[in-house]
Design goal:
The complex is a heterodimer.
Chain A (H helix, E strand, L loop, with lengths): L1 H25 L2 H8 L3 H28 L13 H20 L8 H8 L4 H24 L8 H15 L1 H17 L8 H24 L15 H36 L1
Chain B lengths: L3 H24 L2 E3 L8 E2 L12 H9 L7 E2 L5 E7 L4 H4 L16 H9 L4 E7 L6 H10 L6 E3 L13 H7 L4 E6 L1 H5 L6 E5 L9 H15 L5 E6 L1 H8 L5 H20 L4 E6 L15 H4 E8 L15 E3 L3 H9 L26 H26 L6 H17 L6 H26 L4 H22 L7 H4 L2 H21 L8 H23 L1 H10 L6 H12 L4 H5 L1 H28 L6 H6 L1 H18 L14 H6 L12 H24 L8 H24 L8 H24 L5 E3 L4 H7 L6 E2 L2 H9 L10 E3 L4 H20 L2 H28 L3 H5 L3 H17 L26 H12 L1 H8 L3 H12 L1 H12 L5 H13 L8 H5 L1 H32 L6 H49 L1
Parallel strand pairs in B: 1-6, 2-3, 4-9, 4-10, 5-12, 7-8, 7-9
Antiparallel strand pairs in B: 5-11, 10-11, 13-15, 14-15
Helix pairs in contact in B: 1-16, 1-19, 1-42, 1-43, 8-10, 9-10, 13-15, 14-15, 16-19, 16-42, 18-19, 21-23, 21-35, 23-25, 23-33, 23-35, 25-33, 27-28, 27-32, 27-33, 28-29, 28-32, 29-32, 32-33, 32-38, 32-43, 33-35, 33-38, 35-37, 37-43, 38-39, 39-40, 42-43
The chains are: A mainly alpha, B alpha/beta.
Chain lengths: 269, 1080
C-alpha cells in the first residue's frame, strides 16, 4: 500500500512534467524564439502577415456594410466574401515567398526538391483534390451539425468553401497537397523552411479562430429577434470571419509583446 | 469495503433536493382546484316555470334567509363584454386641460362623454388584477372568480381546458347562448361552450391588427342578431402594441382611438336592456410588458354602461372606485341570474348591476338576497377547501372567521329595514374580504424567503462538492469521509432537523419543512466547511496542480448548456442546442484522439494506406456515425407551441389521454428492428466477453431474458398500435407485464448473485484452454498463469479458469441496462423508443472513444480510472439530450400520460403510485438510464483493453521497436503505457479497490455537481425572469422539468453506485473463495 502510493505520486509528478513539456511544444514557437534572440525579418513577416489577414477581414466587413443587405452572404455568385478571402490567402502566400527569397541560398536538399516540385501538375492536382475533399467534409459536418439535409445546398457550400479557405487552403497554397497533409498529421517535416514555418504558425491561429467562430456563430440562430441576418449561413460566415480576426489579433499581440520585451531589454542594457 | 460513500451520496442528494424543493415551494404556488359546481333554483317571472316568483315564495324566503340557499333571481339584462387586452386604468382617464396629450392619454374620449351625459348609467372603475398578470391566468381569474396560481393541482395537464366551476359553464348550463370573438385563449379554455365563436390565435406578438380587424368585421353582424344573451369580444391590439412599441408610441394612440370607435359603434348598436362592460384584463408597465405585480400592471380599466337602466348607487355598500377582478364573476352571475360558481371568492359589486326591480321584492331585499347568496357560496367553498387541505390555513384564523360567520348568519334573520341592511352588508363585506386576504396570502405571492433560501441551499452542496470532492484524490476520500464521522454528521443533521421541526415558528418560517431544510442545510454546510478546512493543504495542492485554462473548451460547452435557461428562445430550441453541444463534445474527444494518435502513428511521413488502416480513423468514423445518429434524432423531436407550424401541438389538446400522433407502419417496424438489433448486439458483446458461459443465475437470465423481453417489446409495439380491433387488451398487457417481471427478476438476481462469470471446473482446464478461443476470451489470472508456466504438471489442476473475469464489473451493469432499457421501450411510444436506442448507441460510441483516449493519455491507475472531464460532460449532456430524443418537450401539456396505462388497462394495480412511477420512467428515461449506468465511464477502458489488447500494442509498438513475442511483452507494454498491468481487464479495478471505489464516488458527485448546477441555473433564471412575460409558459415549466429531473437523477446515480458496490462485494467473495481453494 505504502509503496503503491509513492509509485503513484512519482508517476503523477512525471505526468505533470510531461504535461508541461507538451504544453511547451504546443505553444507557438515564435515567442520562445523571440525571447532568445530577436529576428527582425521574421517579426516583420509576422506583422505584415497579420495585418494582411486583418485587412482582408476589414475589406469583407466594408463590403458587407456597402451592400447593406446581409442576406446575400449565403449565395455563391452574389457575394464577394469568398473571392476576397481567397485573394487575401494568396497574398499571404506571396508574402511568405517574398520573405523566403532571402533564405534561398541556405536551403537543404529536401527543401530545394520540394521547392522545385511546387508547380508540377501532380502537386497542383493533389492540392485541388485535397481542397475539394475538405470542402465536402466541411459541408458534411455542417449538415450533421444541424444544417438542413434537403435544400440550402448553396448556403452550405458557401460556408464550407469559406471554412476551407480559412483553414486548409493557405497551407495547401504554401506547401502543396502532400506537404499540407504531412504538416497536419506528422511532426514537423524537414522540408519546411524557416519562413514557411512562421507562416504556418500564423495560419494555425487563423484556422482555429475561423472554426471556433463559425461554430459559435450559431448562438444567435435560435433567438427570436426575427432579423433577416439570423438566417442560416450568415451568422456562421460572419462568425468565421470575426473568429479568424480574433485569432489574428491574438497572434499579433503575441508578436508585439515579444518585440516590446526585446526592445525593453535592449534599452535597459 | 464499507458503505460510507453511499451515505455521503445520500446526504448530498438530500441537501440538493432540499434546496430545490424549498425553492419550488416559494416559486410555484399551488392550489387544489375543485370540480364541484354550484346549482340553484331559478326564480322565474314566467308563470309556467317550476319556481315562480310569487308573494308566497318571497315570504317563505324571508322567514328563514339562511335556509334559502341556492336561489337565483331572474336575469336582469343581456351583457356585452369587450375585453381589451392590457387596457390600463390610465388609458381611460380623461384630462381636460392637456394641450399635448401623451400618446395614450385622452384617446378613449367616448367613455368620458357617456360619463358626463348620464352619470347614473355609466361607471368607470379601477379594475384590480391579481398577479400573475398574464392573459391566460387573468382569464381564469375573470371566469372562475378564484385566485389563479401557476399549478392548479388536479387540473388536467394535458389540455388547458378549465375543469373548475366557472361563470361561462354556468351561463352555458343555464341555456343562455353566448357568442365569442377574438383571442383564441378563450376557446382553448372553454371549448364547445359558445354558440358561435370567431377565435384567432394570439401567438404573433408583433401583429397589431389582424385579430382586431377580424373582430371588427364580425361584430356588427353579431350585434344586430338577437339570438345571444352574452357576447364576448377580446381585442389583442393594445397589448401587442405595448409589447412591440410600448405605451408612449404613436401606434398606441392609433390602437386606442380604434378601440374608442369600436366602443362607440357598440353603444350605438346595442339595445336598451343590454349592459356593456369594457374591461382590460391587466395593465402594463412603462415599457409595455406585464406579468408581475406592480400597480402599473395590476390596475386595469373597467367601464360599464347601460342605456336605459340606472346602476345601483352608493347605498348598496359596494366600492365605487375600485373593482377587484374576481368580483366580476359574482356580479356577472347576478346580472344574468345564474348560480355563482363554486370556487368564487369575489363579492358582488352592485355599482355595475343595472337596477331592475324584481317583482314582490323591494330594493334592499333584492340586494340582501344577492349578498347573502354570495356569502353562503364563499363560506361553503372556503371551509370545504380548508377541510380537505388541512394545514393550508392557520387554525386560529379559521376559528375567528367561522365565529364571525355564525354571528352574521344570526344577524341576517333580523334585517327589516334599509339602515340595518347597510350595516350588515358593511360587516359582511369586511368578513368576506378577510377570507379573500387569507387565501391571497397563500396563493398569490411569491415567497422570496423560501426562494432565496432554496437558491442558497442548493448551491452550497454543489460548491462543497467542487471544493472537497472534486479537488481531492480518490485515494484520500477514505481519510476525509470516515465512517464514524459520517455517522456523527448524520446524527447532527437529524438533531438539526428535529430542532427545525420543533422550533420553526420561532424563526418565522411558515412550514416545518422549511425549518427542517434550513437547519439541516446550515449544519451540513458547517460540517463540510470543517472538512474543507481540515484538508485544506491537500485541496490547495491538488487545485494548484490543475493547469490554467485546463478543460477550457469543455467548460465553455458546459457554460453554454447552462446558459440555455436564461433566454426563452434558447429554452424553446433547447433540443437542438443540446444536440449541437453534444456533437461538439464528441468532436472534441475525437479531435484530441486524432491529435494524439497522429503523432504516434505517423512519425515523419503521412501514408494514406496506413491512415486508412489505423484505429484513429475508425474511431473518427465512429464519432461521425454518432453525430449522424444525433442528427437523425432531430426527426424524433417533438416541437412546441412557440416554434410555429407545430403539428404535434394542435393534436395534443382536447381529449386527455389519446395518442398524440399515430405514427405510420414504417415507424413501428423500424422500432421493432431497432429493439432487436440492440438486444442482439449487447448479447454478442457479452458473449464475446465470455459473460454468457456457465449457468449462474444472472448468466441464465442474461442469456434468455433479453431475447424474451425484446420479443415481448416488439409484440407490444406492434399490437398496441395495430389497427386490428379485436385483440384483447389483456393479451397486450401480458407482454408488458412480462417485461416488468423480467426487470424485477433482474433486480432480485443482482442483489442475490450478480456475477456473470463461469469458474471452469479444474478437471477440464487444459482442454478448454486449448479449444475455447473461437469467440470466447478465457481470461486467466496472471498470477496463476505464471505459476502454471513455472511449475510442474500436477499443479495444473489447481489453476482456476474463469470466463468473463475481464469484464466482471461492466457486464453486469450492461445487462441491468438492457432490462431497464426494454422496460422504457415498452413505456415509450414507438417513435420515442427509437430515440432511446439511438442515444444508447451514441453512448456506446462515446464510451469506446473515451476508453481508447483514456489509455493513450493515462499515466497511472488513478488517471486511467478517472474519466476525462469532457467525457463526463458528454455523458451528462447525453442523458439530457435523451429526454428530447425520446419525443419529450418541456411543456406541461406534453407529458406522456399514456405511459401510466401500459400493461394496466385491465385493472391490475390501480394505484396512483405505480402510474406516477411509470410516467416518470417514461418522461425521464434518459437521465434515469444513463445515470444508472454511469460507472461504465470508468470501467469501460479496462474492458476495452481486455477485448482488444491489440489496440495498445499498435499504438506502442512503433516506439518499442521491433516485434517481440506477444505473450511476454503484453504486460510490459501495458506497464510501460499506463504504468500498471492492464492485461487483466477489470480485475485490476479490484486490486486497486480503494481508488476504484473512491473514483466511483467521485464520478457520482461530479454528476451531482453538474445536475445541481443545472437546476441552480434553472432556479436562477426563474428568479431573474419572475416578471417576464413568458415566465409561466416557458421558464416555470422548464424549471419544473429540471427539478423533477434532479429528484430523479440523484437517486439514479445512487442506484448506480449501489450496483457498483454490490458487484464489488461479489467479486471480493469470489476472489477470496478462489484463493482459498488454491491454498487447499
Amino acid at each position: 500500500m505504502e509503496r503503491s502510493t509513492t509509485v503513484i505520486s512519482v508517476l503523477v509528478s512525471k505526468e505533470q512534467a510531461e504535461a508541461r513539456k507538451s504544453e511547451g511544444e504546443n505553444c507557438n514557437s515564435l515567442d520562445l524564439n523571440m525571447v532568445s534572440r530577436f529576428d527582425q525579418q521574421k517579426t516583420k513577416h509576422q506583422l505584415f502577415h497579420v495585418s494582411l489577414s486583418l485587412a482582408t477581414i476589414l475589406l469583407c466587413m466594408a463590403y458587407m456594410q456597402y451592400r447593406r443587405n446581409w442576406a446575400h452572404l449565403g449565395s455563391f455568385w452574389d457575394s464577394l466574401v469568398v473571392p476576397i478571402v481567397f485573394l487575401g490567402e494568396l497574398l499571404k502566400v506571396v508574402l511568405a515567398r517574398f520573405y523566403g527569397r532571402v533564405e534561398d541560398g541556405v536551403l537543404s536538399l529536401k527543401q530545394r526538391q520540394k521547392k522545385s516540385s511546387y508547380f508540377t501538375p501532380k502537386e497542383i492536382l493533389g492540392g485541388i483534390t485535397l481542397q475539394f475533399l475538405c470542402t465536402l467534409l466541411y459541408a458534411f459536418i455542417c449538415i450533421i451539425l444541424g444544417a438542413p439535409v434537403l435544400g440550402n445546398y448553396e448556403q452550405t457550400f458557401v460556408l464550407a468553401l469559406l471554412m476551407t479557405l480559412l483553414t486548409v487552403s493557405p497551407t495547401v497554397f504554401l506547401l502543396g497537397g502532400g506537404g499540407a497533409l504531412q504538416v497536419c498529421f506528422c511532426e514537423k517535416p524537414d522540408f519546411v523552411t524557416k519562413c514557411e514555418d512562421t507562416a504556418l504558425n500564423l495560419f494555425k491561429y487563423n484556422a482555429l479562430g475561423g472554426i471556433l467562430g463559425a461554430w459559435a456563430g450559431s448562438v444567435v440562430a435560435p433567438l427570436d429577434w426575427g432579423r433577416d441576418w439570423q438566417a442560416y449561413p450568415i451568422p456562421n460566415v460572419i462568425g468565421a470571419l470575426l473568429g479568424s480576426a480574433l485569432g489574428n489579433i491574438y497572434a499579433c499581440t503575441h508578436v508585439l509583446y515579444a518585440t516590446a520585451k526585446v526592445y525593453m531589454t535592449k534599452k535597459r542594457s | 469495503m464499507n458503505f460510507t460513500y453511499l451515505f455521503v451520496l445520500i446526504w448530498l442528494a438530500f441537501l440538493i433536493s432540499g434546496g430545490v424543493l424549498l425553492f419550488s415551494r416559494g416559486f410555484l404556488l399551488a392550489r387544489v382546484s375543485k370540480t364541484e359546481t354550484s346549482t340553484c333554483r331559478r326564480l322565474s317571472t314566467n308563470p309556467h316555470d317550476e319556481y315562480v316568483l310569487s308573494p308566497e315564495v318571497v315570504n317563505e324566503i324571508f322567514k328563514d334567509v339562511n335556509a334559502s340557499a341556492n336561489l337565483c333571481l331572474p336575469q336582469k339584462s343581456r351583457v356585452i363584454i369587450l375585453v381589451v387586452d392590457a387596457l390600463k386604468y390610465e388609458f381611460g382617464l380623461f384630462r381636460d386641460n392637456v394641450s399635448e396629450p401623451l400618446p395614450y392619454e385622452n384617446k378613449l374620449g367616448f367613455l368620458n362623454e357617456l360619463l358626463e351625459q348620464n352619470p347614473d348609467h355609466a361607471r368607470l372603475m379601477r379594475f384590480k388584477a391579481d398577479p400573475p398578470t398574464t392573459t391566460m391566468q387573468r382569464l381564469k381569474g375573470l371566469t372562475t372568480g378564484s385566485l389563479p396560481t401557476f399549478i392548479d393541482i388536479g387540473s388536467n395537464f394535458a389540455s388547458p381546458e378549465i375543469n373548475e366551476d366557472n361563470v361561462i359553464d354556468q351561463i352555458a348550463s343555464s341555456n343562455l347562448p353566448m357568442v365569442f370573438l377574438g383571442d383564441g385563449t378563450w376557446t382553448d379554455l372553454y371549448p364547445r361552450r359558445f354558440k358561435r365563436a370567431y377565435s384567432y390565435p394570439s401567438f404573433d406578438i408583433f401583429d397589431l391588427d389582424s385579430v382586431d380587424n377580424q373582430i371588427k368585421k364580425h361584430l356588427p353582424k353579431e350585434l344586430s342578431s338577437d339570438d345571444w344573451q352574452v357576447l364576448v369580444a377580446h381585442f389583442l391590439g393594445v397589448d401587442h402594441c405595448g409589447h412591440k412599441h410600448g405605451p408612449m408610441h404613436e401606434e398606441m394612440a392609433r390602437k386606442l382611438s380604434e378601440m374608442n370607435d369600436v366602443i362607440r359603434s357598440v353603444v350605438e348598436a346595442m339595445d336598451n336592456d343590454t349592459t356593456l362592460l369594457v374591461m382590460g384584463d391587466h395593465g402594463m408597465t412603462a415599457s409595455g410588458d406585464h406579468g408581475g405585480d406592480t400597480d402599473d400592471e395590476t390596475n386595469a380599466l373597467l367601464f360599464a354602461y347601460s342605456k336605459q337602466h340606472r346602476f345601483y348607487g352608493n347605498d348598496s355598500g359596494s366600492d365605487t372606485e375600485m373593482l377587484q377582478q374576481i368580483d366580476l364573476v359574482p356580479t356577472l352571475a347576478t346580472i344574468l341570474g345564474v348560480p355563482i360558481p363554486y370556487s368564487n371568492l369575489g363579492l358582488i359589486n352592485f355599482n355595475i348591476v343595472p337596477d331592475i326591480p324584481v317583482p314582490y321584492l323591494n330594493k334592499f331585499q333584492t340586494l340582501l338576497l344577492h349578498s347573502w347568496q354570495n356569502a353562503q357560496q364563499i363560506y361553503r367553498y372556503f371551509f370545504q377547501y380548508a377541510f380537505e387541505n388541512k394545514r393550508t390555513f392557520n387554525v386560529e384564523e379559521m376559528d375567528r372567521l367561522e365565529t364571525e360567520f355564525i354571528l352574521l348568519s344570526h344577524r341576517v334573520q333580523t334585517i327589516y329595514n334599509e339602515a340595518a341592511f347597510k350595516n350588515f352588508v358593511r360587516d359582511l363585506n369586511v368578513n368576506l374580504r378577510d377570507i379573500l386576504g387569507t387565501c391571497r396570502e397563500i396563493w398569490v405571492r411569491f415567497d422570496p424567503t423560501q426562494m432565496s433560501h432554496g437558491l442558497l441551499f442548493s448551491f452550497l452542496p454543489v460548491f462543497f462538492i467542487f471544493l472537497l470532492v472534486n479537488n481531492s484524490r480518490p485515494a484520500d476520500y477514505e481519510k476525509i469521509f470516515k465512517a464514524k464521522e459520517t455517522f456523527y454528521a448524520y446524527l447532527i443533521n437529524v438533531a438539526a432537523g428535529v430542532f427545525g421541526y420543533r422550533y420553526y415558528k420561532n424563526f418565522s418560517f411558515k412550514t416545518e419543512e422549511h425549518g427542517v431544510i434550513f437547519f439541516t442545510a446550515v449544519t451540513s454546510a458547517a460540517v463540510f466547511s470543517f472538512h474543507v478546512l481540515r484538508h485544506w493543504t491537500n485541496i490547495a495542492n491538488n487545485w494548484a496542480a490543475v493547469r490554467r485554462f485546463a478543460h477550457m473548451p469543455t467548460r465553455l460547452l458546459l457554460f453554454a448548456a447552462m446558459a440555455v435557461f436564461f433566454s426563452n428562445s434558447f429554452v424553446i430550441q433547447e433540443a437542438k442546442i443540446l444536440s449541437y453541444l453534444l456533437a461538439a463534445t464528441i468532436l472534441l474527444l475525437s479531435h484530441e484522439l486524432l491529435r494524439l494518435s497522429a503523432r504516434i502513428d505517423f512519425k515523419t511521413k503521412f501514408k494514406a494506406s496506413q491512415f486508412l488502416r489505423s484505429t484513429a480513423l475508425r474511431l473518427v468514423l465512429a464519432s461521425i456515425l454518432a453525430i449522424c445518429l444525433i442528427r437523425f434524432a432531430y426527426t424524433l423531436f417533438r416541437c412546441r407551441e412557440e416554434q410555429g407550424n407545430c403539428s404535434d401541438f394542435t393534436n395534443s389538446g382536447g381529449a386527455g389521454f389519446s395518442l398524440k400522433k399515430p405514427g405510420s407502419g414504417k415507424t413501428y417496424i423500424l422500432a421493432v428492428v431497432v429493439i432487436v438489433v440492440y438486444t442482439t448486439l449487447t448479447r454478442l458483446y457479452l458473449r464475446s466477453c465470455g459473460n454468457l458461459t456457465g449457468n449462474s443465475p444472472n448468466v441464465l437470465l442474461a442469456r434468455y431474458g433479453p431475447t424474451v423481453a425484446s420479443i415481448c417489446a416488439g409484440g407490444h409495439v406492434l399490437l398496441a398500435n395495430s389497427s386490428i380491433k379485436n385483440i384483447q387488451r389483456s393479451h397486450i398487457d401480458v407482454l408488458a407485464l412480462v417485461i416488468y417481471a423480467l426487470l424485477l427478476l433482474q433486480i432480485i438476481v443482482v442483489s442475490w448473485a450478480p456475477l456473470m462469470i463461469f469458474v471452469l471446473p479444474p478437471r477440464n482446464a487444459n482442454t478448454v484452454i486449448v479449444n475455447g478461443s473461437e469467440s470466447i476470451v478465457p481470461e486467466i489470472f496472471r498470477k496463476m498463469k505464471r505459476m502454471y508456466e513455472g511449475n510442474d504438471e500436477e499443479r495444473r489442476n489447481a489453476i482456476p479458469v474463469v470466463y468473463g473475469l475481464a469484464t466482471v464489473y461492466s457486464s453486469i451493469v450492461i445487462t441491468f441496462g438492457v432490462f431497464l432499457a426494454l422496460v422504457m421501450v415498452v413505456l415509450l411510444e414507438p417513435r420515442a423508443s427509437i430515440g432511446l436506442i439511438v442515444c444508447i448507441a451514441v453512448a456506446a460510441i462515446l464510451l469506446s472513444i473515451h476508453g481508447i483516449l483514456r489509455y493513450r493519455t493515462a499515466t497511472s491507475f488513478e488517471t486511467c480510472v478517472q474519466p476525462t472531464f469532457t467525457a463526463i460532460v458528454g455523458w451528462f449532456l447525453l442523458a439530457h439530450f435523451c429526454f428530447f430524443a425520446t419525443s419529450h418537450q418541456t411543456t406541461l401539456s406534453q407529458i406522456e400520460w399514456r405511459a401510466a396505462f401500459v400493461g394496466r388497462t385491465t385493472g391490475i394495480g390501480q394505484s396512483n403510485l405505480i402510474s406516477g412511477v411509470l410516467v416518470i420512467l417514461n418522461t425521464f428515461c434518459g437521465p434515469i438510464f444513463f445515470f444508472c449506468m454511469y460507472s461504465l465511464l470508468s470501467t469501460e477502458t479496462y474492458s476495452l483493453f481486455a477485448l482488444f489488447p491489440n489496440l495498445i500494442r499498435s499504438c506502442r509498438s512503433s516506439s518499442a521497436g521491433g516485434k517481440v513475442d506477444p505473450t511476454t511483452t503484453m504486460t510490459d507494454l501495458a506497464n510501460e503505457a499506463v504504468g500498471f498491468d492492464m492485461t487483466r481487464g477489470e480485475l485490476t479495478l479490484y486490486e486497486y479497490e480503494d481508488v476504484f471505489l473512491g473514483t466511483g464516488f467521485k464520478l457520482a458527485t461530479q454528476f451531482f455537481m453538474l445536475q445541481g448546477l443545472k437546476v441552480f441555473c434553472a432556479m436562477m433564471a426563474c428568479t431573474i425572469h419572475c416578471r417576464h412575460l413568458m415566465v409561466w409558459k416557458i421558464f416555470a415549466p422548464r424549471f419544473i422539468y429540471e427539478a423533477l429531473a434532479t429528484f430523479v437523477s440523484l437517486p439514479s446515480l445512487i442506484l448506480g453506485y449501489l450496483l457498483l458496490l454490490r458487484i464489488h462485494r461479489a467479486v471480493d467473495t469470489l476472489i477470496k473463495r478462489i484463493n482459498k481453494t488454491k491454498v487447499l
